[in-house]
Amino acid sequence: MPTVHAFHVVPELPAALDGLRTAAYNLRWAWNHNAIALFRRLDPDLWHNTHHNPVLMLGSIRQERLQQVAQDEDFLAHLEAVNKSNARYMNAAEEKMTWFQQNHADLSGTIKIAYFSMEFGISECLPIYSGGLGILAGDHLKSASDLDIPLVAVGLLYQQGYFRQSLNTEGWQQERYPDNDFYNIPISMVNDSNGHPLTISVDFPGRAVHAQVWRVQVGRIPLYLMDTNIPQNSAADQNITDQLYGGDTEMRLKQELILGIGGLRALTAMGIAPTVCHMNEGHAAFMALERTRMLMQEKGLPYREAQELVAAGNLFTTHTPVPAGFDVFTLEILKTYFADYAATLGLTFDEFLGLGRVNKTDTAEQFNMAVLALRHAHSCNGVSALHGDVTRRMAQAGYPGFPKDEVPVGHVTNGIHTASFISESMEELLNRYLGSQWGENLWDTEMWAKVDSIPDEELWSIRETSRAELVEYARRRLRQQYEARGVSEHEVRQTQGFLDPHALTIGFARRFATYKRAALLLSDPDRLLRMINHPERPIQFLMAGKAHPRDDGGKELIQKIVQFARRSEARARIIFIEDYDMSVARHLVQGVDVWLNNPRRPMEASGTSGMKILANGGLNCSILDGWWAEAYDDDAEAGWAIGKGEDYNDTGYQDHVEAGALYALLEEDIIPLFYNRNADGLPRSWVKRIKNSMRTHCPVYNTHRMVREYAEKFYLPASARYHRLRENELEKARSLVSWKEHIRKEWAAVKVERVETPDSDSNGTFKVGVPLKVSAYVRLGSLSPQEVKVEAYHGSLDVAHEITKGEAALLKWQSSEGSTHHFEGEIVWGGSGLQGFHVRVLPTHPDAALPNELPLIAWE
């Protein structure tokens, strides 16, 4: 091969336009309409053709055009305004103007969160995301930036990213993987202290794999991405970061090694020492092992003491609603990659395998990344209230004896970054009626109440305009799709008459997994055709989404929808937009009237696509699953629910019932309400529902609220606990390990000997609100009363005489006689009917997160 001399060639910008480069490399522009307008102003067609990539645009634009705008005073004033806005934004923390500085300034310099994720959806010009998980991660960073949370993020830089989608003449999904040009996207290489590219290495079988570190500036937040496609690696290892979710199980393991172990090493190499590490899904769980190993090496600690401190500063967020969704690896593949690494942790390989098993000694159980994450994080959460309940059910096996409701898994309901998805016209409308600072106080319910002051005419005018813009966009995309497939010119011209800018427009766009039931809408084709072709009240559907390349079931759903949409009776009213990405999503959520979501409950962990329409004035129609299960209120008249949240054992019957419910909602409620116009031509009842939705949902379902909740519920307490356990050469961490070993050893001797209720009458009848005294006599062996807490767990009894939704009343120590101890307290019955209680004993310690760390319980 001939020698190649490589150079990084950058665009030659006139001095007056130098600020364009600064603006391009901070992705704050991705959620700033004024900055986007600046780049579009340079060359609208080029902005579109470069996939909204300002770096590529600046490298592609004609030099004559740059010289021209360098003399344009209006353009230069626009550029100055954008740069001043960015400067104010970046300096706001120093002036104590951000949420974090106003509420937690005393913690500045003592807390640093590292957020690990397999994918990040920041902008379509940085294609390192596949779907909801990545968009959520990107929105997390944007809100962390807006709130000024001290956070850095870690991910992988994919050479090809996720695939680009097209459909063949049969409607079957085709995948292509164009290479990303890292030198023409808004990322920068990280250099070491010598000015050379910063690289880290991770030991693989028989070799070290190296990764180069890149930086993406997301407002105030740095996102560090690792790339193995460098000359130091073999050709095979260069391919590790080629594709997001590509390859086989072993490739997934390699990527997760680079993300978890390599990511933490990259932070260390840059002098970043996080106090809290947030694992967004189990993909990053190897980070916890590396963090433990590094602490062992730094302090000369055994594994258990180092793990104690590390787990105190780790948070695990799961988005998975079924056990099969977690990554698992076989003993054989782990032995290949981790036999030597286990030794660095001071563990035998069997002990290492136990870290990823619910039953540590079950040799038939595979190594589960979620279990590994749970074992190394004292905080865990699901991503909606319903998903938190589902996750507690899945995790219950790891907490034997504990009621499901007390399994230590919380929830933080997901949100979306409102500024990234709201249309420019709607943003301007809210500026006028909610105040120009509305975007900084998204959780303020009083502020959102002002939507009632927006004149119906103005709100509906924007809705009409947005829908018309979406129709034009869909027609343009459809023409491009037809031309790419080589259809006749006559058919291409016909697309100009597809869709009606005044018709009720419903959107359905998401990952095409089978549980999301994209084809539920087609359950009764004749009924659907009557609705879409109604002469006075037509409806139309815009659909988009990708199936995983190895998911033939998902591909079949796409094919079924596309083939139906190509029927002569449907082709003008049902449109499938290929190659779903963030740009397509923005157009859809800004223009549709209704967002449809019909997953098979309870398979939707959260779902965020429907949240993106809220501030744009769209309405949701959804199964009561994920976020909609907690957002929907029948009395609020702010959207529609398909069904009543029923659970089914027969999925075929479930599909039949819920398809019927969806059709009925459309025919009897949604369509009539949309087309019910007053004498002034306005659908005032529909507009009222829009305002109800915006007022009730917008303050809650946004990532500003979500990230603030993560900070106050998890980040700040975890960081404080991490610092507390680290004090005095880890004195409290060491003590805690010893205490837990002592408790485990002695727990078998704990026994509730007898329980007395001296105040109860002969027939066991009590009145609501009257306290019942409970005395318990507990044998503790060598444990002291101060090392346990004794509780009366009480509540209503179901037909099986089991307590439902129980509460715990603390029984206080009264006296001791040998190893038997008397505890006493009161129960106050909060409801009538059949009630009951158990007495139980649990370990307690002021420095322990229980029962996360020590799931021990002894029942009467």
User: How many structurally independent domains?
Assistant: 4
The low-confidence parts are none
Main sheet makeup: 10 strands, mixed
CATH topology of the largest domain: Rossmann fold
Radius of gyration, Cα only, in angstroms? 29 Å
Strand content: 15-25%
The CATH class of the largest domain turns out to be Alpha Beta
Number of E-state strands: 27
Overall pLDDT level? 95
Helix share, percent: 25-40%
Contiguous helical run count: 28
Structural class by secondary-structure content: alpha/beta
CATH arch. level architecture of the largest domain: 3-Layer(aba) Sandwich
Can you offer a commentary on this structure?
- With 860 residues, the chain is an alpha/beta fold.
- The protein folds into four domains: 15-91, no CATH class; 110-411, Rossmann fold (3-Layer(aba) Sandwich); 418-701, Rossmann fold (3-Layer(aba) Sandwich); 750-859, Immunoglobulin-like, CATH 2.60.40.
- Helix content is 40%, strand content 18%.
- The chain contains 28 helices and 27 strands.
- The strands form five sheets. Strands 1, 2, 5, 6, 7, 8, 9, 10, 13 and 14 form a ten-stranded mixed β-sheet that branches.
- A hairpin with a 2-residue loop joins β7 and β8 (221-227).
- α8 (132-147) crosses α28 and α10 (249-269) packs across α11 (286-299).
- It is globular and about 95 Å long.
- The mean pLDDT is 95.
